[in-house]
Amino acid sequence: MSNILIIDDERAIRKTLSEILTYEGFKVEEAADGEEGWKLFNDKNYDVVLCDIKMPKLDGLEFLTKASEKNADVPVIMISGHGTIETAVDAVKRGAYDYVAKPPDLNRLLITIRNALDRNKLSKETRVLKRKVNRVQEMIGDSEPIQRIKETIEKVAPTEARVLITGENGVGKELVARWIHEKSNRATAPLVEERNTCRRKSDCSHQ
Ligand SMILES: Nc1ncnc2c1ncn2[C@@H]1O[C@H](COP(=O)(O)OP(=O)(O)OP(=O)(O)O)[C@@H](O)[C@H]1O
Ligand SMILES: [Mg+2]
Description:
Blueprint: E1 3-7, H1 11-23, E2 27-31, H2 34-43, E3 48-52, H3 60-70, E4 76-80, H4 85-93, E5 98-101, H5 106-133, H6 144-156, H7 173-182
Parallel strand pairs: 1-2, 1-3, 3-4, 4-5
Magnesium ion (MG) is lined by residues 173-174.
């Protein structure tokens, strides 16, 4: 079930949207201003945010900026009043997924939400696929030393231990490092490579 956050200071708009979206099978939460919306956005995971533009405390554009800095994946749909269509267009240029005018046309709103959810799903799938495509190359060999290396990788990768990998040029130190990352609890986070950090030039084969 998809989670939708509605941020609008007009109670009537919140209620209407919330009723319709709940009826359509979405899980809906409401916030009465940008600040409350921002708190909820920080605490929970939403699939789509509907956000008014003119609001007390934190307005729609400020919310959009903060939200896309934190998590650019969640589509934000602006709800625009009479005087704020231009601002809504501006918001879309700044990364909002789309905007709907007040009072919301319900069919258009539902189409916009479904499209936003689809885009979100696609970008998640793309990320998973990219990870699969970039999978670490298999470690070839089943000699005793290679088996020992594989066992050691299995043992140390899930721990917080620091690992020093030594060996002559081209023996596969980087491959071992990639496998340790792949089997670690941080496998979904990037592997950060630092180069040329040797303290003494005479110890270093990087230049
Ligand atoms: N056991 C292995 N199975 C498959 N490929 C391997 C194996 N060992 C090394 N390779 C391949 O050999 C090449 C060199 O390995 P790698 O870059 O990991 O070595 P390195 O020890 O980091 O080298 P350098 O000292 O030059 O930094 C890579 O293409 C790596 O994938
Ligand atoms: Mg290397």
